[in-house]
Write a structure and sequence with these properties.
Layout (H helix, E strand, L loop, with lengths): L2 H8 L2 H32 L7 H29 L6 H17 L4 H12 L10 H32 L18 H19 L7 H9 L10 H5 L4 H6 L1 H20 L2
């Protein structure tokens, strides 16, 4: 038995399926609400219905969020069982959970598209059909998740293979060691970027990154921002243009530091 097969047999799959089912119901309700909002906006603009491209774009995003949900649920269940993330686990989740979710030709995303097109009486001047569009969206998503899974797995492999001891400085701290808040902020930033990319947003703006950080109350602000600028949460940063400019510089430094780190 391969390592990946062993992992898939050990994970609590009934719990994974239960959590996936619950999450998919929420995603479907959220997507239906968004489609209705688009329909109302188009009616207010004097159009009979949204365009086919508008509907399929929303449904394509729904497919991306389903893939994201599959990973998050598997990771959560695996950790709840007392296990650590490993390269084999990441590759297993892609092969056994994410790829099948994306490839499901009769899944919720295609059904949503077809129901919306019939319900809104949408007509298209092109030969584009929901299966055609979803097939193209699925191909791009699979390429993204395959690359991301392999990159994340390689990072864990490299970290395990090379973990040199850090030298002590005269102040007692290890050289190169950053404050815990700084490390937590960098982790939160990377999580926010990963989340946006899983949704298909590969060029997130500073405002979008800050909004994603604001959703998670555990993401710390940089040291000194509260005392110096009077902001205590990322929600406050989001409302102040000058703080968004500082956040842009901060994110650029984090990206540069991560790119230069081994």
């Amino acid at each position: 038995m391969s390592a990946q097969e062993d992992i898939w047999n050990r994970i609590d799959r009934p719990l994974v399926e239960a959590k996936l089912g619950q999450g998919q119901l929420y995603l479907q309700a959220e997507t239906v609400t968004r489609l209705r909002q688009i329909q109302e906006e188009r009616l207010q603009q004097g159009y009979a219905a949204p365009t086919l491209i508008e509907v399929l774009a929303v449904v394509g995003e729904h497919l991306g969020r389903q893939a994201e949900l599959a990973y998050e649920v598997c990771e959560s269940v695996w950790k709840d069982q007392g296990n650590e993330l490993t390269p084999d686990f990441i590759r297993t989740v892609y092969r056994k959970a994410i790829a099948p979710t994306i490839d499901d030709k009769t899944g919720p995303s295609v059904s949503l598209a077809e129901q919306a097109i019939v319900g809104m009486r949408i007509r298209s001047a092109s030969d584009l059909t929901p299966p055609d569009f979803m097939a193209d969206a699925a191909r791009q998503l699979k390429e993204f998740w395959q690359r991301k899974s392999e990159i994340d797995a390689k990072k864990l492999e490299y970290a395990a293979a090379s973990n040199p001891p850090l030298l002590k400085s005269r102040r007692g701290r290890k050289k190169g060691q950053r404050f815990p808040e700084t490390r937590d902020l960098e982790k939160a930033f990377q999580t926010a970027m990963d989340t946006l990319e899983r949704r298909g947003n590969f060029r997130a703006t500073t405002k979008e990154i800050v909004a994603e950080l604001a959703k998670h109350g555990h993401a710390p602000l940089p040291r000194g921002w509260s005392a110096k600028y009077g902001v205590k949460t990322w929600h406050e940063v989001l409302k102040r243009p000058e703080m968004l400019a500082r956040a842009a510089k901060l994110f650029a430094k984090i990206k540069k530091r991560r790119q230069s780190s081994p």
